[in-house]
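haha ok so turns out i had the wrong file open the whole time. this is the CORRECT one, sorry everyone. sequence first:
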Amino acid sequence: MNPIHIRLGEVEFDFEPSSGYLRYVRVGSVELIRGIYGAVRKADWGTPTNRMTSTGQQSSNKTWKANWTARVSEGDVQFDWRGSVSAVLSESRVEIEYEFEGEGKSDFKSNRTGICVLHPRSHQGMKCEVEHNHGECDQTAFPKSIKPDQPFKDVKAISLDVATGIHVRTEFFGEVFETEDQRNYSDASYKTYSRPQEWQKPFDIKNGDKIHQRVKIVIDVTGIKSEVKLEASRGKLPLLGTSVNRALSEAESESLKNLGIQCWLASTNGIEQAKKLGGPVFLQTEVASFPADLSPNDGICLAPPNQWQKLNNVRGGKRLSTATWAFMQLNGSRPAYDEIEGSAWSARPDIHLPDTLTCLEGGWTVQDQVQTAQGFGSKINLVGPIEFSNDPTDPRQNTIEAALYALGAVVGAAKGNANYAMFADATRLPQSGFALALELLKESEGEIEIHEWEPFFLMIRGSRTILANFGWEPTDLYKQCPIDRSENMENGMRNAYRLITADNFADWRKVLSGPESHNPLTMIPPRSIVVM
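then structure:
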C-alpha cells in the first residue's frame, strides 16, 4: 500500500496506514523530519512487524488525524498498542503530535519499546539547542562527521533553524530519550529513541505493563513558499568491483567483464579466481598474511578493526582495517592511520529497518562514511561489499529498487571521493539489480555531474545521462536538469530516451539494446530509471 500524501500550508509529509509510519516532513526540498514510528525491539534487537488491526483518518483544510491499533506477536513477545498522529495548521505554524499507548500481553524482555524519531542526514553541521529533562539547555550541533557515540543525551526537546524562515522544535514525553548517529549503520538519519543505552537492557515488560509516549513537533514557516530545488554537485567515480568467494565458470567470468568490473574483493576461496580476472585484488581475511604473488596495487582487508595492529607486520600491498558488519565497528576502533594505509567496510541499509523506503535512502550515507574515515586519517577507502539486504534470497535484490540503491551508493562514494566500491557478490551480481547500475556506469570515467533531491530523485551525467526517481509518486523534476532548454521541456521531455520501470525491469538488457523512445515524457514514473 502506497503512503498517503498530506499537505497543510507549506508543510508536507507522507503517512503509511499499513505501518503507522510518518515520513518525510518537509517544506519544499527542505527536509525537517525523516520519520516517526513506533516499534518493539526484542532482547536480540530484532524488530517484529507491527500488524495493524484497525485504522482511521479524518481531515479538513487545516487539520488531519489518523489513529490505529497494532499488534506485535512473535514468540514470547505479545504487545498491543494504539497509535495516533495529528497535524494542525494555524496561520504559519503546523503542529504534529504522534502518540504511542501500549500494553504488554505477555511477559517478555525488550531492549527498546516506544517511539523513534529520525532526523535527516541533511541536518549534519546544523546548530541546535538541546533541552534536558531538568531544564538545562545545551547549544550544540548535529555532528557532521559520524559520531561513534550518542551526540545528545537526556533529551527533552531539540530546536533548530533548518533553513532561513523554517524553525522546528521536537519535544518528547513519557520517557528519557537520547540521540544516536544512525549513519554508523548505513541509515541516512540520526535517531532519537527512548531508554538510554547506558540503562540496563534488556528490560522486563510484564503482562499488563503499560507504556505511554508522545512526541510533539512545532514547525514555524515564515516568509517562504514550498519549492523543490535540486542540489548540484560533482564527484569522482571510484573503481567499481564485486566480491568473489569461489571459482567461477567461463560464462560467469565473461558476464562480469561485460559489466565493466574493475576490481575484486576476494575471500581465501576466491583469491585465485580474482587474480585471473585482472585488476586490483583485495583479500578479505582475519589472518594478517599477504600472499606473495599479489602486487603493490593489491591489498589486504583485515577484520575485525580492533586487530588493525597486526597489519604492521604485513608487507607488499595496501593494508586496510576492515569492518565486515557495519561502519560502526571501524568508527569505534579508529586505527592509527600513520601506520597503515586505509579502511574497508560493508554497507547495507537493512540493519535497523528492512523496509524498502529505508533501504533506498541508505546510498546517500556512503558519502558521510567515506568522509568520516578520511577525517580520522584513512587514506585509501574501500566501500564493500555493498548489499541491499543481508538475505541473499531477498527477492528485492533482483528488482529495480536494488538498481536505484546501487546508483545512490555509487554517487555517495563519488561525492566522498572513495577509491573503490565493491558490490556483492560475483555469483549473484549479473542477475541482480546492481547489474543494471553497473551497466549504466561502466563507460563513465573520472568526474560525474550530479543533480539530486535526497531521497527522492537523482540525475547522474557521465558517459550517459541517468534520471532516477526513487519516490512512490511520478515526478517532473527532470525539468530542473541540464538536459535541454527549459522552454523545450515545458510540456514534457522530448529527448530520445529509454525507460526502465518495475514492469519491464526483468528485460532491462533488451530495453537498453532496443530502440529509443521519442514520445514526450511528461512525468517519470515511480521507482524508475530514464537513460539518455
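The helical segments are 250-258, 271-277, 327-333, 356-361, 365-375, 400-416, 433-441, 508-513.
again sry for the mixup
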